[in-house]
Amino acid sequence: MTSLNIAQATSERSDCLTLGEVMLRLDPGLERTRRSDNFKVWEGGGEYNVVQGLSSCYGHSTGVITALVDNEVGQLIASLIRRSGVDSRWIQWRDFDGIGRSARNGLYFMERGFGERGAKAVMDRGHTAISQLSAQDIDWQGLFAQAKPRWFHTGGVMAGLSECSPEVVKAAMRAAREVGAIVSYDLNYRESLWCQRGGREAAALCDAQILPYVDVLFGVDKLIAPVTDLNIPVFADSLRQMQQRFPNLKQLVSTMRIVHDASVNDWSGLSLVDGVITTGRAHHKLPILDRVGGGDAFAAGYIHGQLSAQSLQRSIDLAVAHGALVMSTTGDNSVLDKTEVYAYAQGADASASR
After folding, report:
1. Burial of 244 (0-12, 13-18, 19+ CB in 10 A)
2. For the chain, what is the mean pLDDT?
């Protein structure tokens, strides 16, 4: 059983709303960024990828709260959001000043790793529209009264965008709780956001301000011991330590990943609910095509399981399966059908379907 009291699905309520930056990803394919003259583009962002998976793969009604500059790049990002079935009505549009001095849209260049060469990202997200968003810029009560989400998700990427971003996150969480939404938060740490602002220690202090508002936590602040394999007791004890620090947390969920190289990972996941550890299928030496978005797909699979009143075991199995399959495709996003995820979660192999 789950300790969550999730609102029933109705025509008046959306399933999941998220808050986060949505950037344009430029992917050089098999080339290096420094040598490429051709880039594929996707929309992506740690928080957004979760609702994209919920909508595109599982058919949930979702929406994103973000801010974009109203120019051709911003309109491209918005069109990509809508293509995935994510509601774009809560985008906060900002005027374009002609060169992006006052606000701009975020870009990032992401080359896939292979073998001993790790994936490499170059972020170009300074002074973006959403990083300048303040808690007073949005009527949070009005927005959430209109959306009425059953679940609200955000994370450490959004909270780390600027000095004012944690207050934006907390304002959204308070409004979400007022309409009865379950609130989840992913600890996602981005070194590029924190390297000049105190690093992991500063990020952990930021998270500590936010976690009292959270019901479901994805990730752990740090493992209590180094691991070289899918050591369930170490991951489980790390979750227990987090719950001791933040007893308001009802569910703690985490991926388990061991990186052998950029192309081969061990992969699984687990949850801690009411003192009970539930583990997913262990994938040893899982082939990785593009690891970006794997953790977000994991969160989407888990949230889907909970929103659809499935068991904790099924929820964690869907999370592990969705994350594994998303890492077999290119881009940040889920391009899967839920029947594929369910089949894989139940042990289906990679035989051709004809």
Report:
1. exposed
2. 95
The 10s digit of each residue's pLDDT in 152-204 is 999 999 999 999 999 999 999 999 999 999 999 999 999 999 999 999 999 99
List the structure tokens of 235: 């991951």
pTM for this entry: 0.96
Q: Are strands 107-111 and 120-124 parallel, antiparallel or unpaired?
A: antiparallel
Burial 284-319 (b: 16+ CB within 10 A, else e): eebebebbbbbbbbbbbbbbbbbbeeeebebbbbbb
Residue 132 · residue 106 · CB < 8 Å: no
Structural contact between residues 256 and 235, judged by C-beta atoms closer than 8 angstroms: yes
The alpha-helical segments, DSSP class H, found in the chain are 48-56, 72-83, 140-147, 156-159, 165-178, 191-194, 199-210, 232-245, 294-307, 312-326, 338-345
CA separation for the pair 2, 19 (Å, rounded): 25
CA torsion sign for 302, 284, 155, 293 is: negative
Q: For residues 146 and 140, give the distance between their C-alpha atoms in angstroms, rounded to a whole number.
A: 10
Name residue 121's beta-bridge partners: 110
Tokens coding 135: 């808690």
Question: How far, in Å, are 131, 181, 244 from residue 194 at the CA level?
Answer: 13, 29, 26
Q: Is the pLDDT of residue 1 over 70?
A: no
Q: How many CB atoms lie within 10 A of CB 149?
A: 25
Please state, as a whole number, how many other Cβ atoms lie within 10 Å of the Cβ of residue 76. 15
Asked whether the beta carbons of 133 and 91 are under 8 A apart, the reply is no
Higher-pLDDT residue of 72 and 350 is 72
pLDDT at 211: 98
User: Which CATH superfamily groups domain 16-20+47-66+135-345?
Assistant: Ribokinase (3.40.1190.20)
Cα–Cα dist 97/317, whole Å:
48
